[in-house]
Design a protein that fits this description.
The complex is a heterodimer. By secondary structure, chain A is α+β, with helices and mostly antiparallel strands. Chain A has 3 domains: 287 residues, no CATH class; 112 residues, no CATH class; 60 residues, Arc Repressor Mutant, subunit A, CATH 1.10.10. Chain A is built from 15 helices and 15 strands. A 9-stranded mixed β-sheet of chain A has the order 3-6-7-10-1-11-12-13-14. In chain A, strands 5-4-15 form a 3-stranded antiparallel β-sheet, with no helix packed on it. Chain A has a two-stranded antiparallel ribbon with strand order 8-9. In chain A, strand 13 and strand 14 form a beta hairpin. In chain A, helix 7 packs across helix 9, helix 12 crosses helix 15 and helix 14 crosses helix 15. Chain B is flat, with a radius of gyration of 22 Å. Helices cover 38% and strands 6% of the residues of chain B. In chain B, helix 1 packs across helix 2. Chain B is mainly alpha-helical. Classes of the chains: A alpha+beta, B mainly alpha. Strand 9 of chain A pairs antiparallel with strand 2 of chain B. The complex binds zinc ion (ZN). The site of zinc ion (ZN) has 8 residues of chain A, from loops.
Chain lengths: 477, 98
């Protein structure tokens, strides 16, 4: 039988607020354990939470960017369960009236665009972090993370493959980063993704039994975990067996999912309205104010880059993957560079320098107008494109202006015809074989000779002129 | 409805991580049934035209600004912990991952 996968994603992102969602403790990730804690986030009796306005505004902004409806009337609820990461024995979350609901996100896989429904995005508090590495039969609990604002984004079960899940996560992260509402750093746990996966015969409308896959540390890990889980469930179903509803953890080292515990029906959270927090009423005016702060979103920016700058789809995808990168590119164009050329330098050499040095683009020492000036030097024939690579590397390392680098290192391109003609004659004399080949009709021997000229001039020969002069000298006899 | 069984009491006490002796269970069967009985009395009212009450106060949108305030120093934070190593609250080893 043919099966199809039915996948829904639950993504938790920590919101980028300075303070926690219900108290004034800092959200600094690097603080030593239990130093960003107070009676509220430690769950002491008798304290009162007060909600952080920014956390609500970030949630609404995320909801708007995902095409969600914003609730005019919303509230916080208590989700009751016992776990050592939860001092109060309840998590303040949202149950039946989420802040935002009913949106969608467009993804693209192999050139095919598809919309994945967003069921809801609701605000809640993060839990404490447990550490199991202390030994001695104990676990340690660090409440620094307890009470950090968390947005839970739940998708519809519209995803049909591991590749679509990967595309969904990538698109979601991109939007949230564009909005600046979350770092979406999976390593630091500011983005956590869980996948609900089930299989059903193609054409069936009912869902099969699902498993929930957790503990994945990267998007590619999520993709592999889903691929594994689909194969595992298919094997069970093909043998006539039944999939067990359970939570499974991804073991990246072994490349398998492992049963964590059966999802016992005792998960009865007994939600009820949080009596310590009054309802949230985001009216049209407030929603409009937040909508005005939204930046141009990735898809709109890609479309504009294609139209305004005439860039190919691939280039726009790379350049808009990161908002800072897209801003940088536009600043280079603004400073006078031709867009296609600017794009090539940003996506190519600059991106590589940034990646190799592990430097975020915000800390890049090559300012956009410096890169534009360097491209200008190529256009004016002062340096060759090849030399420009070295110039850029030095600009990147030292922060010097391109003109300064070219001058200090004597990199100005040789465009003096007499000087180059002399080099051409010397190259021909030193390479009688290829020169003879060329004269005998093997025109591609020219490339080798041009290469020799570049070598002789340490890359400074104007390539176009070198070409012409070589041909001229060779054809003279 | 309104009749609470012993199974209900065991289910609810299980969720609350409470261990009850038989006598207490029997007593709670009676007490909880009485409470539900009272709720049934309230159910006699026609509330079909009344919005559910979300909060006892008629207020909305009480917020704080996103400003960091001083936290407790760690010694104070850990002062009442049943067990700690000076850095972490210590709990019996958690076996299943969350
Ligand atoms: Zn706090």
């Amino acid at each position: 039988m043919e099966y199809e996968a039915v996948i829904g994603m639950e993504v938790h992102v920590e919101l980028n607020t300075d303070s926690k969602v219900f108290c004034g403790c800092s959200t600094d990730f690097d603080a030593p354990p239990n130093t960003n804690v107070c009676p509220v986030c430690l769950g002491m009796p008798g304290v009162l939470p007060v909600i952080n306005r920014m956390a609500v505004e970030y949630s609404v902004a995320a909801g708007l960017a995902l095409g969600c409806t914003i609730s005019r009337w919303s509230k916080m609820d208590r989700k009751n369960y016992f776990y050592p990461d939860l001092a109060k024995n309840y998590q303040i979350s949202q149950y039946d009236l989420p802040l935002t609901y009913d949106g969608s996100l467009e993804i693209e896989v192999d050139g095919v665009r598809k919309r994945i429904g967003i069921t809801r995005a609701h605000l809640e508090e993060d839990t404490a972090r447990n550490t199991h590495s202390l030994g001695g039969g104990v676990s340690g609990v660090d409440f620094n993370r307890s009470g950090v604002a968390l947005l839970e984004i739940v998708s519809e079960p519209d995803i049909r493959s591991a590749a679509e899940a990967f595309a969904y996560l990538t698109a979601l992260k991109q939007i949230l980063q564009y909005l600046g509402v979350s770092d979406c750093n999976m390593e630091e746990g500011s983005l956590r993704a869980e996948a609900n996966i089930s299989l059903r015969p193609v054409g069936a409308t009912e869902f099969g039994t699902k498993t929930e896959v957790k503990n994945v540390a990267s998007f590619s890990g999520t993709q592999r975990a889903i691929e594994y889980e689909i194969a595992r469930q298919r094997a069970i179903l093909e043998e006539g067996g039944a999939v067990l509803q359970e939570t499974r953890g991804w073991d990246a080292d072994r490349g398998v999912t492992v049963s964590q515990r059966s999802k016992e029906s005792a998960h009865d959270y007994r939600y009820f309205p949080e009596p310590d927090l009054v309802p949230l009423a985001v009216d049209e005016a407030w929603e409009a104010t937040i909508r005005e702060t939204l930046p141009e979103l990735p898809q709109a920016r890609r479309d504009r880059f294609m139209e305004q700058y005439g860039l190919p789809a691939y280039d726009t995808g790379v350049l808009t993957a990161d908002r800072a990168m897209a801003d940088y590119f536009e600043a280079v164009v603004e400073a006078g560079a031709e867009p296609k050329q600017a794009g090539n330098w940003v996506m190519g050499d600059l991106q590589k320098l940034l990646a190799d040095g592990d430097v975020p683009i915000g800390e890049c020492r090559v300012e956009p107008d410096g890169l534009a000036a360097m491209i200008g030097l190529i256009d004016k024939g002062v340096i060759s494109g090849k030399i420009a690579k070295d110039v850029l590397a030095e600009m990147f390392a030292t922060g010097k202006a391109p003109g300064t680098v070219v001058e200090q290192r004597g990199l100005v391109q040789i465009s003096d015809a007499d000087e180059l003609a002399e080099v051409a004659r010397a190259v021909i004399e030193a390479n009688p074989g290829p020169a003879g080949d060329y004269r005998g009709g093997k025109k591609n021997a020219l490339g080798f000779l041009v290469g020799q000229m570049m070598k002789a001039t340490k890359g400074k020969a104007n390539p176009k002129l070198a070409n012409e002069l070589l041909q001229h000298e060779l054809e003279k006899g | 409805m309104g009749k609470i069984t012993k199974q209900d009491v065991e289910y609810v006490s299980g969720l609350a991580h409470l261990t009850l002796d038989e006598e207490t269970k029997e007593r709670l069967v009676g007490e909880l049934s009485e409470i539900l009985g009272y709720m049934e009395k309230l159910n006699e009212l026609d509330t079909s035209n009344i919005e559910p009450t979300m909060h006892a106060l008629e207020m909305t949108n009480v917020y704080r600004e996103d400003k960091v305030q001083p936290s407790l120093d760690r010694e104070t934070a850990l002062m009442n912990a049943p067990d700690s190593d000076g850095e972490y609250f210590l709990v019996p080893k958690i076996l299943d991952t969350e």
